[in-house]
Amino acid sequence: GKEKELIRGSWESLGKNKVPHGVIMFSRLFELDPALLTLFHYTTNCGSSQDCLSSPEFLEHVTKVMLVIDAAVSHLDDLHTLEDFLFNLGRKHQAVGVNTQSFAMVGESLLYMLQCSLGQAYTAPLRQAWLNMYSIVVAAMSRGWAE
Ligand code: HEM
Question: What percent of the chain has pLDDT over 90?
Fold first, then answer.
């Protein structure tokens, strides 16, 4: 439908430049909640969040996140096929100390990145389309916290 078209259309350009867009997203996330930085064990020695954001391990995580988003966009017609993967991904995040409440701020940061990158093309329906997809991904990951 229309929502899928909005998501696919906007991801077409963003997905070609994953790292810079992911860096915008995570810079925003650490502005919103600086404590999340400490969950990346390899960032304990960076002076500022700017230094952390340019460390290779950190950029690798940014890439991993963008690849998950890429997978979700590619599977808009059959998101349920990602359930097991996302469940396990949730469990890994529980293990590293992430709280499910933090996903609200990750969502804010995703929208912030979209707004920065898309400019005029960032519309209310587009925002809603991305929120809907994101909430499906988060719901699947959050199952990894149960018991
Ligand atoms: C792995 C933290 C959000 C995807 C990790 C690791 C940490 C971490 C510490 C293990 C070290 C590493 O691989 O770099 C966080 C924090 C987040 C967050 C603090 C925000 C609250 C996300 C999101 C996604 C994601 C939103 C994708 C939708 C991944 C992937 C891995 C990973 C694919 C690798 C898992 C594996 O080794 O199989 N994350 N993460 N992360 N994260 Fe995140």
Answer: 82
What pLDDT digit, counting tens, does each position of 65-92 carry?
A: 999 999 999 999 999 999 999 999 999 9
Fold of 2-145: Globin-like (1.10.490)
**Considering only CA atoms, which residue is closest to atom 39 of ligand 1?**
93
Residue 134, pLDDT score: 98
Q: Is the CB of 36 under 6 A from ligand 1?
A: yes
Domain limits of the chain?
2-145
Q: What is the pLDDT of residue 147?
A: 58
Query: Ligand 1 within 6 A of 40 CB?
Result: yes
Closest-lying ligand 1 atom to the alpha carbon of residue 69: 28
* CB crowding 28-63: b at 16 or more within 10 Å, else e: bbbeebeebbeebeebeebeebeebbeeeebbeebe
65: CA distance to ligand 1 center in Å? 7
